[in-house]
Design goal:
With 94 residues, the protein is mainly alpha-helical. It contains 4 helices and no strands. The N and C termini lie close together (7 Å).
Length: 94
């Protein structure tokens, strides 16, 4: 049971990571942002990215906030997944 929870959490983490990357690379193409897929990805990812855009303003035409956001997501996500694994071990579900 515990391994299933961890596997599902890891899949969700990976999917959202890829959605962030798709949104970052899709921002280079205006056609992508106006497409149905692009707007869906934007609705899912922009609330997370907006947190970083508040603190890191764009420098001219270059927005560095997504780069910081992806590093933060990677670090915090892996930390959270390891914490979940340890919790499942403590509960005996692993």
């Amino acid at each position: 049971m515990g391994t299933n929870i961890l596997v599902i959490a890891n899949y969700i983490y990976d999917i959202y990571y890829w959605l962030i990357l798709i949104n970052i690379f899709g921002s280079w193409f205006p056609q992508f942002q106006t497409s149905k897929i692009g707007s869906l990805v934007g609705r899912l990812v922009n609330p997370y990215l907006s947190v970083f855009r508040k603190f890191i303003p764009p420098l001219g035409m270059i927005d560095f906030s997504p780069i910081v956001a992806i590093f933060a997501y990677s670090f915090i996500g892996r930390f959270a997944l390891e914490g979940l694994r340890q919790l499942l071990i403590m509960l005996g579900a692993f």
